[in-house]
Amino acid sequence: MKHVKPQVSIQNVRLTTVLAQQPILSKHIAPAAIASSRIALQKRYVAFEPSQSPPQTTPAKPEDAYNILAKQRRNRPVSPHLSIYQAQITWYASGLNRITGSVLSGAFYLFGAAYLFSPLFGWHLESAHLAEMFGSLGPVTKGLIKFVVAMPFCFHGFNGVRHLLWDTGRLFGNITIARTGWVVVGLTVVGSGILAYM
Length: 198
Prior knowledge:
The chain is an all-alpha fold. Helix content is 66%, strand content 0%. The protein has helices at 10-21, 23-28, 31-35, 62-75, 89-121, 127-135, 139-167, 174-196. The longest helix has 33 residues, at 89-121. It is elongated and about 100 Å long.
């Protein structure tokens, strides 16, 4: 039996030399594998062969693209909203502070504009006429109207003081914030009642 010497290619020698020079690789590759002139390259086979023909596509119209996007959006899961959380006084106080501020400023501007333009349209919004009209109402109706007008004023005022205290760094703990929220609600009801039936 004749001994055949393996053919050493220049590419295998270069690859072996490069691997031997890498400090990280030289620790993990057996010295015999580095010293050998042949390194067996591993072949990996794919599970499927890609198709030789290019994929068939048709250009979409802008309205088709919008309809596809709208259909995808309908299938997206809805993010949890406020209905999954337990309601807290801080939510209500924050929302009501904005609402009462808008109501107060909106009413002020609307009444001011109506008062300025009342002579042009023949409206009787002068103070004497308003006082006479309000005086003709019954005591319960007067009290309810005054209570409804006083409530946003009281709430916004008391909650504004609460916010000013927060700005100084006082009463700014989780439990304290909830307690002061209920204090503001109580003061609003009591203050509105006092203003309504004075």
